[in-house]
Amino acid sequence: MGHRHPSKLRTTEVSHARARWLLRAELAGCQECRGEGDHEALDDLVSGGMFDSLITGFVLARVQQWRSPGRTPRYPANVYRIAPIDERDFWGVPTQHCMRVCTVESARATSVDTLPALRELRLMSDHDRALVLDDIIDGLSEDEA
Q1: For residues 55 and 136, is the Cβ–Cβ distance under 8 A?
Q2: Measured distance CA(139)–CA(25) in Å, rounded
Q3: How far apart are the first and last CA of the chain?
């Protein structure tokens, strides 16, 4: 019998129901559900899937925070290029690689092209894929705190 992790998520950019469930499990500190959710996300590398929703939510939430008056990137822009250096340094190497091929389409940050990142994730080892997922979940959780 399952249990629930009540939480009102502020991150509206994560639209996939199971991705939102995984994020709530992380915030509740439920290792059992986090393990189950991680396994699901690592296997769901399709457009519109769980991992895609997490990447999209992470990028859309972060781009809003990264805006600064002195920096006006040209769009479309890859996420790695527009992220602040201290943020990029926090990411593991596999995450940095994914963010180099993930593209924010416009300055309004309403859409993200994640297809190249999903393609790269499919080519990665399970370990590297898990590192990317951890970085993204950490970033989304940080936004919720």
Answers
A1: yes
A2: 15
A3: 29
